[in-house]
Amino acid sequence: MKRFTNAIFSTGIISCLVFATSVSALDEKMHAQLDELKSAAIHSNLSYDIIESLTTEVGPRMVGTPAEKKSVEWAVAKMKSLGFDKVWTEESQAPDWQRGELKVSLLAPFNHNLVALSLGNSVGTDTAPIEAQIAHFRDLDALKAADAQTLKGKIAYVAFAMERRKDGSGYGEAVGARVSGAAVAAEKGAVAFVMRSVGTDSHRFAHTGVMRYKDDSKQIPALALSNPDADLLENALKRNQPVTMGITSTASGTLKETVTIANVIGEFTGSEQPDQVVTLGAHLDSWDVGTGAIDDGIGVGITLAAVNHISTMAQRPKRTIRVILFAAEEIGLLGAKDYVARHKNNMDNHIIGAEWDFGNGTIYKLAPGMGENALVEIRKFAEYLAPMGVEMASTNNAKGQSDMSLLGEAGQPAVNFYPDGSDYFDYHHTENDTLDKVNQEALKINTAIYTTFAWYAANSGVDFRK
Amino acid sequence: MKRFTNAIFSTGIISCLVFATSVSALDEKMHAQLDELKSAAIHSNLSYDIIESLTTEVGPRMVGTPAEKKSVEWAVAKMKSLGFDKVWTEESQAPDWQRGELKVSLLAPFNHNLVALSLGNSVGTDTAPIEAQIAHFRDLDALKAADAQTLKGKIAYVAFAMERRKDGSGYGEAVGARVSGAAVAAEKGAVAFVMRSVGTDSHRFAHTGVMRYKDDSKQIPALALSNPDADLLENALKRNQPVTMGITSTASGTLKETVTIANVIGEFTGSEQPDQVVTLGAHLDSWDVGTGAIDDGIGVGITLAAVNHISTMAQRPKRTIRVILFAAEEIGLLGAKDYVARHKNNMDNHIIGAEWDFGNGTIYKLAPGMGENALVEIRKFAEYLAPMGVEMASTNNAKGQSDMSLLGEAGQPAVNFYPDGSDYFDYHHTENDTLDKVNQEALKINTAIYTTFAWYAANSGVDFRK
């Protein structure tokens, strides 16, 4: 909040300094346009209202659910109502998985109902519940090192706790167990795989997320306990008595029939180089447990609001601005894969892109991934953002975040905007990812940054590949 | 944390000041004994370990459940292991209620599963689910003012949101709707009563708690939504379209057969006036959804640890210290009622009492309820606590908190210790009331305060009635 206030009140002074030192970068006209857009975004509730609409009128929108189809209709209608010129969908196929019901209990030495969620793609318990002893592992490496005989007929439990960090890097250290833990455990004879949730909160919400079996290995149920329930299990294990757990799950495993997914794409057409597109990305799908306000309702709100703010300017941007609301990000960037496959012959027209898929914090860093000559130009834009607390990274290897990383691999230059992600994994993939968690002040600042970025990229004439 | 550190490091200096100004109050010997006990409590994990044991080995312990019976056995064994001389139970009868299963959905204009809990004593939905339109009320008074015709066939919804305050006084303003809202709504023809949870958090946990029907009114299902789900409902209502909700509940209502409950009482016998008892109270029962770490595992931990610390002193206290772990507090102080009925002829021997049933904060105030002469003496003890951040209230009307209030009404002098309760109603009566929420540093300080209080009351020779 403090930073926000300072940014607003000091804009006049600091932007004059910036102007004085970089008059050749952002000319006076561009500077005034960016100021106009920034002010519009900072004084508008539009991005929040879009998130409110999505989470209230659609809610959770997991691939394979009716609500996911409804979200596509919602997005098409919302883009049209916000002033996009062209709106279309691009359909493809995705595997289907149904969560079903899950009951997890501690059976011995004490009896407790435990809060848990099946991991995405997990199979269920078939005909009979599983009741088995827990084999306790510190982390995935310890599980990998276990002898096969020690897991036969047991439930493998991995206790690793994710660390809270501003850049969210604790996720990378923890998520491996979620993705591959069940496959490793199954190879060693385990009958189920249980882990401490990949999350930084200490509330009784389990964190779901995608997992994978190996093609040739046995498929065993895979689930995550809430952090307090993992604590309880570990306190029971400290008693040095056998600890047994019961699991009943009707999770479907990956189903044979695929479902149709759709990227929703909207454009605000450029006035001079309409074939050159600046892309803003977010993902429209969510997990099924919360309403997906943070992941990734915020991205939907920021990108759609950015185009609406730009549409109110006296003149159109020179290049086209394209918002891509990707499908099926949560189960492996499937919408982004389809987008790249479908547009591979015109990736050269993708001038630069940025995604928003990291929640609630205020942006503190702009990291470029572009040609060396373009770096000079993006630094001028970064200087414009400096009074809002944004620094430019010294590296030049950004490939785009989340879905947009696949476009980056296909050659699209990128800017990665980094928000403070300290609280992101408190809500990530939980029932608790709801509208009330949205930080409305940070959202306004971040919307202002994406709006001005899109305008700058579409009007500066920079070739970001050079 | 800061206050804690200061208290420890400044004890030497400040206690000398106290000693210099109040040499007649706490003599040197008493002062040294209190310091010894304070140090023991501050450097011990015992109260935490007791809570860990209760929540891990027993867990939730709602009246009428097997775990509640197990908690009585646990408490008897724990008291004996901690050095209590006499331990016994006093059984009585309580009404039984079973939560059953609850499913709540928004059906129109949007479809959502909602997080909700039945209120204690609520009936279920009998043979068929309820599907009805929501009638929206700001608060209980607005519901009371409604015309009967407006509620016929509808679900009454009360939106009142509890305020967060240090003294927890927002609870009193909000809880009326929980207790009597369903009775009011039923009289006006409503088919169900739904409210925003009485709680200060914004997590997807509903807060349960007891409700009452009027003897002569129709019994309708009563439930509370989590705060984020209440937000969602209210955002749907803002669309000015009819909002309908579906409720399926197998809650039992109050059952005809009663269940046996038991206060668990333990004493450390006084050396000189064993018939005079200083009472420390907490309640052993909890709601069924969390593990009751905060409500009231902390009270169990503090009071049991206090006696254990006292049992390690070179001499016994002159008066007896009695810990009463009350039964069935959550459904109307039923254990306390039985205690007062059973001990009414020897209440004069109850010298003074204090309860702990307000969670996690550090104590900042001592409020007396005693004879005017005794006030001078308790002020000396309050001065001893002053370096730990405790002020003495200017009033003298404390009757005891929670269960202990009934002993206060029956004539027992009281001290009420007030902790910072700002976060108490984040966890109160939710699934999220678990061990990890316990503030271990505050717990040590509060244990030190209760331990020194019990010692002071048992050894000062003060008649707190005079």
Characterise the protein shown here.
- The structure is a homodimer of 466-residue chains.
- With 466 residues, chain A is α/β, with parallel strands linked by helices.
- Chain A has 2 domains: 2-96 and 257-459, 3-Layer(aba) Sandwich (Aminopeptidase); 102-249, Glucose Oxidase, domain 1.
- Chain A is built from 13 helices and 16 strands.
- Chain A has helices at residues 2-21, 28-42, 46-57, 66-81, 140-145, 170-187, 227-237, 293-311, 334-342, 372-385, 404-409, 424-427, 440-459, and strands at 86-95, 102-108, 112-114, 116-118, 130-137, 155-158, 192-196, 222-225, 244-249, 258-268, 273-283, 319-326, 350-355, 363-369, 391-392, 414-419.
- Chain A has an 8-stranded mixed sheet with strand order 3-2-9-5-6-7-8-4.
- In chain A, helix 3 (46-57) packs across helix 8.
- The longest helix of chain A is centred in the N-terminal third of the chain and has 20 residues, at 2-21.
- Mean pLDDT of chain A is 94; it is low at 1-25.
- The interface between A and B is medium-sized, with 30 and 30 residues.
Number of domains of chain A: 2
Write down how many β-strands of chain A occur, each being a DSSP E stretch of 2 or more residues. 16
Query: Strands of the largest sheet of chain A, in order across it?
Result: 3-2-9-5-6-7-8-4
- Contiguous runs where pLDDT drops below 50 for at least 5 residues of chain A: 1-25
Just give the CATH class of the largest domain in chain A. Answer: Alpha Beta
CATH superfamily grouping of the largest domain in chain A: Zn peptidases
Q: Could you state the order of secondary-structure elements of chain A as H and E?
A: HHHHEEEEEHEHEEHEEEHEHEEHEHEHH
Question: What is the rounded Rg of chain A?
Answer: 24 Å
Helix content of chain A: 25-40%
Going by helix content, strand content and strand pairing, the class of chain A is alpha/beta
Largest interface: A-B, 30 and 30 residues
* N→C terminal distance of chain A: 38 Å
Q: What's the CATH architecture name of the largest domain in chain A?
A: 3-Layer(aba) Sandwich
Oligomer: homodimer
Q: What would the principal axes of the Cα set say about the shape of chain A?
A: elongated
Mind describing the biggest β-sheet of chain A? 8 strands, mixed
* Mean pLDDT over the full residue set of chain A: 94
